[in-house]
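Q: A small favour: would you put together sequence and structure tokens for a protein?
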Amino acid sequence: MADKRRSSRKQANLIVQGGVMAVTSLLVNACVLFCRIPLTVLWGDEGNGIYAAAYGGFFVFWLVSAYAVPVAVSGLLKSRLKRGQNQGAGMVIKIAFLYAAIVGLALSALLFLGSDYIAAHILPEPLAVLPIRVLSPALLFMSLSSVLRGFFLGSGAGFPVMLSFILEQVGAVSGGILLAHIQEGYGIMVGALLQNESFSRSYAVMGFAGGISAGSLLAFLFLLGIYLLSHGYYKKRKGKGTGRKESGAQVIAAFFIALFPLILYGILTKGYVVVQQICFRLLMEDRMGQGTITLQWGMYDGKYKVLTMVPVLLATVMGFAVRERVHILCRRENQAGLRDFTQAALKAAMVIVTPLAVMVGTLGVPILNTCFSGQDTKVVSQLLLTGFITAVFFSAAWLLAEMLFGMGYVMPVLLGGIGAFALHLGAIYVMIQILELDLSGVLYGDILYSFLLLLFIGSAAKKRCGFRGSLLRSMLAPLIASAIMGGILYLLARVLTEVLPAGVLLAILAAVGMMIYILALLLLRGVTERELRLAPGGTWILAVGKALRML
């Protein structure tokens, strides 16, 4: 009985299982997403388009130099420290620092010196030149910080990493918004002299880019200080190793073998939006002016993508716990437990993600009017109503990918992602260039990409996780409950939009939608107590169900 209680406590809520780093990741990524709201109010859709271009160019370089390093370094360190190969662990750190210094410095210099060419020919967005230059130092700081984060995570010290992420975001957001306001004033003066109002947006983006660079420097200095203060302790630990020695070539090979799949996964999961942006800008050059292209992409990236990524963010963070739990079950060779857990985890995630995605789509108008008061919402609300399904597809795909990673199957995820990525790029080309669609061509390509990812990764997961045929049938309850909720909310939003203030309407409809969804889900009896305990916020639904004697 005691063992059962302990097991039940272990299975309570996937985000809690993910630990401190999962919660930190949730907070940091939420901060990155939601800071776009005050920024959009400041610089509008055109500013969003300039920011998307500048940050997109920076982001691709960051994926290569910094994104995968913490995970690769921490994994290599943990395995070597566990086996007593402390000399090999020290070599991992040296090689990682060398990689970060060389690649980070080279790409930072390339970003700074090549900013004119990148902005004019690759993105293309001429007004992104100055923000790109200001962002370039952040690349080096983030690359070096990534090694230190990997070192602390591999050594079992997650607290400095958590604090560094918080410091980085506080510095970036607070300093960036302040600098954006200051620089906007300079941009207005420059724009008046050059008779181009867009310079005010470009300078505001440059100010926020300065905040990002300052935040990355602050995080690096903090991590470096902690590393230097604790270096003696870790050096003592390294000196006690008794495991077999590795050659430098072996450690270098292990480092790059761990690094490259993670970089590719980052491009497939995070960098695809940058590729979509480049395709859209290049393919639309002959059909509309530069200003219109920037404005349209600003709406897509700064509003549509921000809002549809909220449910995906929740599922991604839940993946921290899923991967770890799956890894433990595989190590114990518990196939039955693995099958049951993966099915329950996927169902638990969809119970929360699906209604949240439907709310984003059906309540698009009140959400946009609340967050971006006074701005045009017609185009983006249509994008949300059509594209909210991508949040469900992406969430399920990322969660299944984490399950496969936990089992040690990396190649099926990468091959499926590459296939989906290539097909969706071809679809975007056909829709924009041949069918002559505009932003809707990118939207349909995004929907296709999310669906293909789920199809390919889901097929691999079904085979390896041993899902039963009843899995899809068990998903019907949250889908039907979400559809009922979405239909009612959409009608209410259309009727009441002109009657109530946007913020009040959004709060009322969100509360009504939650009640409708919970009641419909419980009436359909399509969810178990275990699945609700795994889901974030599922204990509330569980409490309602028990109070109404529906569970």
In short: The first helix runs from residue 2 to 10.
